[in-house]
Design goal:
The complex is a heterodimer of chains A (about 140) and B (about 220). Chain A has 5 helices and 6 strands, in the order E-H-E-E-H-E-H-E-H-E-H. Chain A is an alpha/beta fold and about 140 residues long. Chain A has one domain: Rossmann fold (3-Layer(aba) Sandwich). The radius of gyration of chain A is 18 Å and the shape is globular. The termini of chain A are far apart. Chain B has about 220 residues and is of the alpha/beta class. Chain B folds into 2 domains: about 120 residues, 3-Layer(aba) Sandwich (Rossmann fold), CATH 3.40.50.720; about 90 residues, Alpha-Beta Plaits (2-Layer Sandwich). In chain B, helix 4 links the parallel strand 4 and strand 5. Chain B is about 30% helix and about 25% strand. The chains are: A alpha/beta (about 140), B alpha/beta (about 220). At the A-B interface, helix 3 and helix 4 of A face helix 4 and helix 5 of B.
């Protein structure tokens, strides 16, 4: 099974390594060549270029990909690349990172698999505080 | 009419000035603080500072009314696509027109359902080709939503169509000659119009048959 990871920052690189470890044939795309160093001893594919550039996507082999993770640092780039991979290349499993919670919800309602780290952080931070022994001001007698 | 303009660069600012002059109600959204200050000093409170791809900014601009038209004219194509999608799909704005900055991104607009786009680079290139016809066929207008385009053909002396009546030219299905320009005068094409070398012929056609039309008319 082939996967492409568009945007090879900390998140993209780690996801790529995990998928490769699970036996996926993974190709990464990043406009910075140095992103390759995040992948360590990498045996998968790596294409230097902007993720919106259709030639770059073609070189990364999106036409034959079964899954795609889109995690560049731009929400809107991720949104449009993710939709392109679904609609034009017919990739069944496209996962898109979107930092802005409202845009993440908007596109999730329209059939995009979105992951919003901001929402996860908010929930986790609030839950940890709630789990502490400290009580809010005014609530204790 | 109420219009929202996203992006206060030269294009967005000039469109806003014109719409205001025409008496329309406009909100202009500009993200950069220094540029927003300039525009606000000139145009007043109709200029809103913020990222027009954020839903709460669009809501403050009145996207939910909704406006009759939204113009997504920022310098980033991905932003223009997202703004247009949110306007059309999220708030049922009847008309969203998007600027294409990099013509290589046009497929994104087409595939993601942004049918009304304007690309200055492609437009200028079309004009240049009009002056210097490379292959005898120039695209004048693409009606993407309708699936039609207008092209102009330059008829050289040895063209297969030269000397023929229009009825006698075998064009593919989905193509029709509409006018013939000769010595600076345009005439509506009729079945008995005879094509002559030097003519500029305008055809309306379905995308994809350009080459067959060119072979039939220009050679």
């Amino acid at each position: 099974m082939k996967a492409v990871v568009i945007g090879c920052g900390r998140v993209g690189a780690s996801v790529a390594k995990q998928l490769a470890g699970d036996g996926w044939n993974v190709t990464c795309v990043d406009d910075d060549e140095l992103a390759l160093t995040r992948l360590g001893d990498w045996r998968g594919g790596f294409v230097v270029g902007h993720g919106m550039d259709l030639d770059v996507l073609d070189r990364a082999g999106v036409a034959k990909a079964d899954a795609a993770v889109v995690s560049t640092d731009g929400d809107n780039s991720n949104i449009v690349i993710g939709q392109m991979l679904q609609l034009r290349y017919g990739i069944g499993c496209v996962v898109v990172r979107i930092f802005d919670p409202r845009r993440a919800d908007f596109y999730a309602e329209r059939g995009l698999r979105t992951v919003c780290p901001t929402k996860t952080s908010i929930a986790t931070l609030a839950d940890i505080v709630r789990a502490c022994d400290a009580a809010p001001v005014g609530s204790a007698s | 009419m109420y219009a929202i303009v996203a992006g206060g660069g030269k294009v967005g600012a000039n469109i806003t000035r014109s719409l205001v002059q025409m008496g329309h109600e406009v909100t202009l959204i500009e993200q950069r603080r220094d540029r927003w200050e300039q525009l606000e000093a000139e145009l007043g409170p109709i200029v809103l500072q913020g990222d027009a791809t954020e839903l709460h900014i669009l809501e403050r601009a009145g996207i939910a009314r909704p406006p009759e038209i939204l113009l997504a004219v920022t310098g980033d194509d991905e932003d223009n696509i997202v703004i247009s999608q949110i306007a059309k799909e999220g708030y049922h704005v009847p008309k969203a027109i998007a600027r294409v900055n990099d013509p290589r991104n046009q497929p994104y607009f087409d595939v993601l359902g942004i049918t009304q786009t304007v690309c200055a680079t492609s437009g200028l290139l079309g004009l240049v080709e009009h002056e210097v016809p490379e292959h005898g066929l120039v695209k004048l207008l693409e009606l993407r939503g309708e699936g039609l385009e207008l092209v102009e053909l330059h008829v050289p002396p040895d063209a297969p169509a030269a000397g023929k009546r229009i009825a006698g030219i075998s064009l593919p299905d989905g193509a029709k000659l509409v006018s013939v320009m000769r010595n600076g005068v345009g005439e509506i094409a009729r079945d008995d119009t005879v094509i002559r070398p030097g003519d500029q012929v305008v055809a309306i056609l379905k995308p994809g048959v350009e080459d067959r039309v060119r072979r039939a008319v220009v050679g």
